[in-house]
Amino acid sequence: MPAQSIWTLLSWGPDGWSDDIAYGVIVTVLLALATLPIGLTIGFFIALGKQSEEPSLRLAANIYTTVFRGLPELVTLFLFFFGMPILLQHLIRYFRPEATIDVNSFVAGMIVLSLIFSSYASEVFLSAFRAIPKGQYEGGYSIGLSKWQTMRLVVLPQLLRIAFPGLENCWLSLLKDTSLVSVVGLAETLRNAGVAARVTKHSFLFYSIAALVFLGLAVVSSFATSAILRSLGKREAQR
Amino acid sequence: MSATAAMVERPPPRTRGWPRPRIVGYALVCLWIAFGLGIVGYLVFAWNPAFFAKYAPAYLRGLGVTLSLVAISMVLGAVLSMPVAYGRMSRNRILSGLAYCYVYFFRGTPLLVQTFLVYYGLGSFRPELQMIGLWDFFKDAFNCGVFAFALNTAAYQAEILRGAIESVHRGQWEGAASLGLHKLQTLRKIILPQALIVALRPYGNELILMVKASAIVAIITVYDLMGNAKLAFANSFDIQAYIWVALVYLVMVELLRHAIEWIERRITIHLKR
């Protein structure tokens, strides 16, 4: 292999690796964005369960967070990625014996990251729930709103505002955790950088680029979240 | 607690019958029980003495590797975090800027990327490293893991330390100064004892995070707990390799969590009324 200059390696096109890494960045961002709504929804309901008066509901929610916060992310991912096909295979054997099952690494990553993200987000939601005084619920009920309406119209807007900084932290760790999915073969930033590193033998260069990409994503999201916070604050002030 | 707490507020009487939350709660608990029984049932059903005899010692060795990796990097990180925290709190622009960049880099990038950067990336500088005699250190995956983990946890621990020290009221510094204690004495005898109570919980969380994150070193060919599970799975294609390792991690994390809670209860006894 002829010695190539670093600029050729970093160019866009068949000789360079920029396009591969850019493709990886898109996959990383898509994975994180696809996980976010699922994780937020599950996390919200887990938090609801945790602050419920019903002990069995609290127990079920607590088991959920204990398990998914206690297991290393990598172990959860491997268990799911390798365990799920076996389980599904056993189930499907009753219907169609010849079928084989493969779990898509993007979907597996999405599910596992939602489980982890939701268990962390539920803690954030829980402490936000505790910061909302009981009078808000009572006020909602006293003007004739139903339980669900009170939650949606009175509590949720305040809840999101209180939980926002905590959720931002959850989002940043979600963004970092996406790199783990490269281990089960998803062609995201780290994996593509790794391929480039192995092919070109410039490991330090390409892994540094991967690090810079994640750093850049963190910077972009902190800009985005501070913009959202500002607009939230403005709306608060106008009222 | 004020006088109002003396008026005991009775919990509301438990609702009878089957309201919707109770139905959902029981259903979910039953689901968890079924899940747990399923796993136990599977482990009993798939019980394989040969598998156990072959891999149990490896798992134990792996546990030792994991624990020593976490312990060494936590201690090194704690040592390294002191100058970083000092830099973060310093009035010197350059010093605080450098410390900020360090913390931002290590908290803003995934630990996996940092580990790869050390293990594979430093291989690019092999001749230079050989020249200064550091190659023997970085040749070993375990050392690389410790190096990356120590740098990473130092950034987090520096922030914990800084937060804890800044949580102590300024009057404490002034009071100590007026008694004629110098800075280091103040820090050691007055500030740190108060700061460490605040810092205990975040330190505990960091320890738990490190135990969980240590599974990552399995990817750079260290045979820690996870590495041995990977090996066992690759050899046997038996999913119980991962189930066992998950149970071990879960037990480890829960033990740590309860130990930290116990310590916190012990050392804050004087703060409770």
UniProtKB/TrEMBL annotation, chain A:
This is ABC transporter permease. The keyword Membrane applies. InterPro entries: AA_ABC_transptr_permease_3TM, ABC_transp_permease_HisMQ, MetI-like, MetI-like_sf. It is a multi-pass membrane protein. The keyword Cell membrane applies. The lineage of its organism: Bacteria, Pseudomonadati, Pseudomonadota, Alphaproteobacteria, Hyphomicrobiales. SUPFAM superfamilies: MetI-like (SSF161098). Residues 25-225 form the ABC transmembrane type-1 domain. NCBIfam families: HEQRo_perm_3TM. Its main location: membrane. Belongs to the binding-protein-dependent transport system permease family. HisMQ subfamily. The chain crosses the membrane at residues 21-49, 70-88, 108-132, 204-229. Keywords: Cell inner membrane, Cell membrane, Membrane, Transmembrane, Transmembrane helix, Transport. It is found in: Cell inner membrane; Cell membrane. Pfam families: BPD_transp_1.
